[in-house]
Amino acid sequence: MDFCNQLTTIQGLENCPYLKEIYVDQCPNLQPPYTFLEAWKEEIAQLKAQLAEYRQQKVNRVIEDVNNFFTGRNPKGRETELLEKIKVLENQISQLQAPQIAQQTN
Questions:
Q1: Are 30 and 21 contacting, i.e. CB atoms less than 8 angstroms apart?
Q2: 3 part of a folded domain
Q3: pLDDT band (50, 70, 90) for residue 47
Q4: What is the DSSP string of 8-45?
Q5: Model-wide pTM > 0.70
Q6: How many domains does the chain have?
């Protein structure tokens, strides 16, 4: 076991998904074997930060849309669109009911 004192790294452990145990008590100079886990943790932290930033941008867009709606900066507000749709549908209903009303009065 003399060679173990000189061992400093083990490469490729990330490619060993079924490795359950590794004994390194006799290797005092060995760096932690699972350094790739730290890299994965850093990547996860970066992805979480990106997700938080994306969500914040999305919230800011919604807030801006709501503010635009209530301040009238939107040339054709959502309320106006809905009122127009209601008017169109009411006219269609009236046109469909007109023949029935005419038959009932005769």
A1: no
A2: yes
A3: very high
A4: -----GGG-TT------TT-TTPPPTTHHHHHHHHHHH
A5: no
A6: 1
